[in-house]
Specification:
The protein is built from 8 helices and 7 strands. By secondary structure, the chain is an alpha/beta fold. It has a single domain, classed as NAD(P)-binding Rossmann-like Domain (Rossmann fold, 3-Layer(aba) Sandwich), CATH 3.40.50. Helix 1 runs parallel beside helix 2. The longest helix has 29 residues.
Length: 253
């Protein structure tokens, strides 16, 4: 299937590792020019070079998305460098799991306000595109409660609600907004990669919960994100696409 992304322009926050890096790579494979940000200079440089090696334009900068001014300035700069903007994927997460005020604030500042400021800054460029698309990265932790009260669960649930609200507001203006909720995703250096090394019992328990008998890969999440972002999904807006290998037990209506 041709997703219709060749020559289009995308911005991905947190685009140097895990799911974010897989999204960047997939967009580039589809012929999309990509701008990305993250907090590690070496990782940003390496990822940009990889994007360019795919035959498309790549731009990157070190940005902390919890710094609203820096994020807004970079979104504007990246949109200008790309010559416009068609796709926005706010992907950065604080991964706030401790039930204390510091974690709640970190989750809100990074996941919620980081997404909000990215969306608001990108909006004029996405509207000018005529096919503007936003995909927010949530989590199955937003859909079912496990491991007790954690800011991560509530913060990700708010992102799903935010995507739905955006979809209703933006549809008359020719733009779409969706969310993708990954389940347990394994990669070296990620949450479950670290758990396998340092908390094997927790890792084994989560592995056993999944009917497929394995965890997902970042590339499998990226495929869903990039499809929803693309013109091939032109009549899909307000959806929350769960990518979890049947992990969650709820019935999704």
């Amino acid at each position: 299937m041709d997703l219709g992304l060749r020559g289009k322009r995308a911005i991905v926050t947190g685009g140097t590792r895990g799911i974010g890096r897989a999204i960047v790579d997939r967009l580039a494979m589809e012929g999309c020019h990509v701008a990305l940000c993250a907090r590690g200079a070496d990782e940003v440089e390496e990822t940009v070079e990889s994007v360019k090696a795919s035959g498309v334009d790549g731009y990157g900068e070190v940005v902390d998305v919890s710094d609203s001014r820096a994020l807004r300035e970079w979104i504007e700069e990246a949109s200008t460098m790309l010559g416009g903007l068609d796709v926005l994927v706010p992907n950065v997460s604080a991964l706030a799991v401790a039930n204390d005020e510091e974690s709640w604030r970190a989750g809100f500042d990074t996941d919620i306000l980081g997404s909000f400021h990215a969306v608001e800054s990108a909006m004029p460029h996405l509207e000018s595109s005529g096919i503007g698309s936003i995909v927010l990265v949530a989590s199955t932790a937003a859909l079912e409660i496990y491991l007790g009260p954690r800011p991560y669960n509530s913060i990700k649930a708010a992102l799903v609600a935010y995507a739905k609200g955006l979809s209703r507001e933006l549809a008359p203006r020719g733009m779409r907004a969706n969310a993708v909720s990954p389940g347990s995703i394994y990669f070296e250096g990620g949450v479950w990669g670290e758990a396998k090394a340092n908390a094997p019992e927790l890792y084994s328990t989560m592995l056993e919960r999944n009917p497929m008998g394995r965890m997902g890969l970042p590339e499998e999440v990226a495929n869903a994100v990039v499809f929803l972002a693309s013109p091939a999904a032109s009549f899909i807006s307000g959806a929350n696409l769960v990518v979890d290998g049947a992990l969650t037990q709820r019935v999704q209506y």
